[in-house]
Amino acid sequence: SSPVISTRMERDLARLERNDPTLTVYQVENAVGRGGPDKELREVSKALKTNTSLLSLSVVTQSRQLSDKGMRLLAAGLEANTSLTTLYLSGNEMSVSSVQVLSQAVAHHPTLTNLSLSSVRLEDEGAVAMAAAIRDNTVLTHLTLSQNNIDRTGAAALGDAIRANRTLKLLMLENGFEEDAAAVFVPGLAHNTGLVALNLARCTLGEQGGVALGDALCTNITLTSINLWATHIGTAGAV
Asked: What element of type H or E holds 170?
């Protein structure tokens, strides 16, 4: 990487480590400094354990992947952190092991309200892990899980989590499910009392899913905005 980028990274890391109150947003980038993003994540993780000023952290990698080592480093920092409100990891593919480590770190984070995990290849096992994290979470209000190839097992787990969760306000699932998997997610909405906005665009509900959604919305009293573009609910589902 260029000396300029390395110098800027070192300067910002130093500010992070000394808890500079003016540094509230930080982005970890690929191939900055020697050792790539894992080395930077190690320093960020260390700082997160004592920093109380940082509010937003994002990780952006050119390889579009977040290593297991990098996730373990990040999670260690998150578990000790008491101030972060936004974590953006979208676009970084991660293993099931990494998702499980992350889910444990965010499950009881005291201040994290916004988590973005679109296009990380959650698939079924990852979705089940995240569902466990949000089921009893009482802080998270915004969650993005779009474009994640979640099948029926993961969709059912997320539906169960939404049934129990009371604080999530915005859930983004655009193109997040495999064919017809969304249909087993929507019944959980019937007993949810927190969600205000839900994005299911490009999730194939089909007529059966559309009917299930209609039944759920008959008893849901908080959802005011729902995106159903290209869900193929058909005539029966729209009635």
From this structure: strand 170-172
